[in-house]
Amino acid sequence: MKFTLQERFNLMGILPREGNILTARVLHDLRQKLAPSDREAEEFAIRADGQTVRWETEQAEGRCEACGVTAYDPKNAARPNCPKCGKPMLPTGEHRPLKKDKDIAIGADSLTRKVVVDALKDLSRRNKLDVANHWPLVEKFFSKADFEELEAELDEPEPEPAKDEVGDKRKAAAKAGKPKP
Question: At what angle do helices 131-141 and 5-14 cross, to 10 degrees?
Fold first, then answer.
């Protein structure tokens, strides 16, 4: 499966923090695969601002006055340096998008897929599914059967609330003329 940087961060954000020994191993391995490499961190200028992760989505093109080279500098998206002589280049006003998908092998019947689908289903059941951030993941991971399972849950009648045992005991005691428990 191919994942954008945004999808990878969103997926890391919904993965459970706890599990049994098997899911813990799966979660550890998946987080390792989803995390940006050092090269990606440099190329996208990834930085953390408190609880928020930010990165560049495009690179500026520059033109070197010293040697005349026009290029994009992957190491400095905001102010490019000449790849030939290393001097700062003047911006040309041109930009190119920084978009690089990462291919991560996740089998259709794998425990990894099940853990991700369960996390997305949990968000859905709690009405916490963020359409902008989570829907691309739903489209990648959900099968027709997963959608049908959630639809069936929505069609089921809501369970009746459990009886208040303490309240029932008080009512019975009041009828019998006994003090409240």
Answer: 90
CB 83 within 8 A of CB 69: yes
pLDDT tens string 104-136: 999 888 999 999 999 999 999 999 999 999 999
Which of 48, 81, 97 is the last residue in one of the domains?
97
Determine contact, residues 40/5, Cβ cutoff 8 Å.
yes
Q: CA–CA separation, 122 vs 14, rounded Å?
A: 10
C-alpha–C-alpha distance, residues 40 and 2, integer Å: 15
Residues 117/114/54/4 CA torsion (nearest 10 deg): -90
Contacts of residues 116-119 at CB distance under 8 Å and 24 or more positions apart, as own/partner, are 116/11, 116/14, 116/15, 116/30, 116/141, 117/141, 117/142, 117/146, 118/16, 119/14, 119/15, 119/16
Please report whether residue 28 resides in a domain.
Answer: yes
Model pLDDT, residue 179: 56
What is the spatial distance between Cα 28 and Cα 19, in angstroms, rounded to a whole number?
A: 11
Q: Check whether residue 110 and residue 149 sit in a common domain.
A: yes
Q: What pLDDT score was predicted for residue 56?
A: 80
Residues 31 and 64 in one domain: no
Question: One-letter amino acid identity for 148?
Answer: E
